[in-house]
Amino acid sequence: MESLVLEVRNPDTVHAIAEAARRQGTTPEAAALELLETAVLAQRPFAEIVEPVARSFDESGMTEENLDDLVAPATRPGLG
Q1: Domains of the chain by residue range
Q2: CA distance 79 to 19
Q3: What is each CA distance from 18 to 3, 6, 14, 29, 33, in whole angstroms?
Q4: Residue 40 to residue 33: CA distance in whole angstroms
């Protein structure tokens, strides 16, 4: 597995990462990694991101109507 070491020198960025870590109850390094991974993932096409879920749905044999029946009670107004 490859790894990458980064050094953040912008004080504003360092502060923002430290604040994010504090809010999340984690280390600045872990917060920075999560931010970086999220940014990289956000650049992938949506179809590529959801492909494993779609494949699993197809393999399950569940119909779209079955899925609608399963999800509908959780999406009624007043439950969110």
Answers
A1: 1-43, 45-80
A2: 31
A3: 22, 15, 6, 9, 12
A4: 11
- Looking at residue 54, its pLDDT comes to 92
For residues 58-77, one letter each, b for 16 or more C-beta atoms within 10 angstroms of the residue's C-beta and e for the rest, the string is eeeeeeeeeeeeeeeeeeee
68 vs 35: CA distance, rounded Å:
33
- Side-chain-side CA neighbours of residue 72 (13 Å): 7
Supply the pLDDT for residue 1. Answer: 81
Side chain identity at residue 60, one-letter code: S
What the block records as the tokens of 3 is 């790894």
- pLDDT tens column, 21-65: 999 999 999 999 999 999 998 898 989 989 999 999 999 999 999
